[in-house]
Design a protein that fits this description.
Layout lengths: L4 E4 L5 H11 L5 E4 L1 H7 L1 H9 L3 E8 L3 H13 L4 E5 L4 H10 L5 E5 L7 H8 L6 H15 L3 E3 L2 H11 L4 E4 L18 H6 L4 E4 L1 H4 L4 H17 L1
Parallel strand pairs: 1-2, 1-8, 2-3, 3-4, 4-5, 5-6, 6-7, 7-8
């Protein structure tokens, strides 16, 4: 069972999500539940995945006042998720509150810069010129490390730089993974599975290249095999 390649269940309801899980089968041990699915199905879909002995990455990118985020983190720990995201742009106090509320079994990941943002888009958010999205991801990753979260989410394009900043211990989870030549859809700064692991990622997140494939199990096997070769090479 592969627990380094996380499949994103970016679908509108639990039936579609669990159908995909059952089609992929026992080879995949880790699934991401994002905003759309969690809004539709709530903790029940997490329970269904846990019943199938899958790890759950709850990707909510929590970003609110510290007290609200701390409460959400505590509740997430109670439903058995393995990874939970908080947004690093929420600031040091929010991140510290989240860290203080996390159970021992829950790993918090600080989201740095979304893979859908390029430097001009990020500059529009910040209200200043941004020439290098990687520098911004690195700055936020340093804050995540200093507060004591378990890891970061960043593009594989920034993973090598971020790894040097945060050191060997924390997790680095990289979305925006695409096979060579595949459509990038709404993502920027995409990389292949092999490139992500070679850059220092501990986990990768793959969505449409698996879930949109005619045979999701075969697509997962191809990506997982390439990822395994990259880690062992």
């Amino acid at each position: 069972m592969n627990e380094r390649v996380i499949v994103a269940l970016d679908v509108p309801h639990a039936e579609a999500a669990l159908g995909l899980v059952d089609r992929i089968g026992p080879a995949c041990g880790f699934y991401k539940v994002g905003l759309e699915l969690f809004a539709a199905a709530g903790p029940a879909v997490v329970a269904s995945l846990r019943e199938r002995r899958k790890h759950v990455f709850l990707d909510l990118k929590l970003h609110d006042i510290p007290n609200q985020v701390a409460g959400a983190v505590a509740r997430a720990g109670e439903i058995g998720v393995t990874f939970l995201t908080v947004h690093a742009m929420g600031g040091r106090d929010m991140l510290a509150a989240a860290a203080g509320a996390a159970s021992a079994s829950l790993t918090l990941l600080g989201v740095t810069v979304l893979t859908s943002l390029d430097p001009p888009g990020l500059g529009a958010v910040f209200g200043r010129r941004v020439d290098d999205a990687g520098a911004e991801a690195d700055r936020l990753a340093r804050m995540v490390r200093d507060v004591g979260l378990g890891g970061v989410v960043c593009s594989a394009a920034e993973a090598e730089r971020v790894r040097r900043t945060i050191g060997p211990g924390p997790f680095i989870v990289t979305p925006g993974i695409r096979p060579a030549g595949a459509p990038v859809h709404d993502q920027h700064r995409v990389r292949t599975a092999g490139e992500a692991f070679a850059a220092g990622a501990t986990h990768i997140v793959v969505g449409r290249p698996v879930t949109g494939a005619p045979d999701p199990a075969a697509a997962f096997h191809r990506i997982a095999s390439r990822a395994r070769a990259a880690r062992e090479g």
